[in-house]
Amino acid sequence: MRLVFRVVFIASFLLLGLDWTREVHPLTTNAFWTDVLGLFGSIGYVSSSVLTLPVRDVLSESVTSVRLFTIGAFTDLLPSTNESPIKATHQHSRELDH
Prior knowledge:
- This protein is mainly alpha-helical.
- The chain contains four helices and no strands.
């Protein structure tokens, strides 16, 4: 379904854009067709974007999970302490800032 809305979005604005490449502009000089194609393009864009949101996993894109993944990938670079990796990373980043 997202693909259909993307095609509507692209086709609408592509038609409006290609109309300007011709010497005569039948679409852009007519307010009705300009509004209809703009409306269809906008609806296609918004609908495609709204349908994309539930597909993405919010947890996988959160900052916390990215930090935890990064900490897990680079634990060998952390100073060896008995503290948690998050605290050690935070202290290490403070040292780099100064």
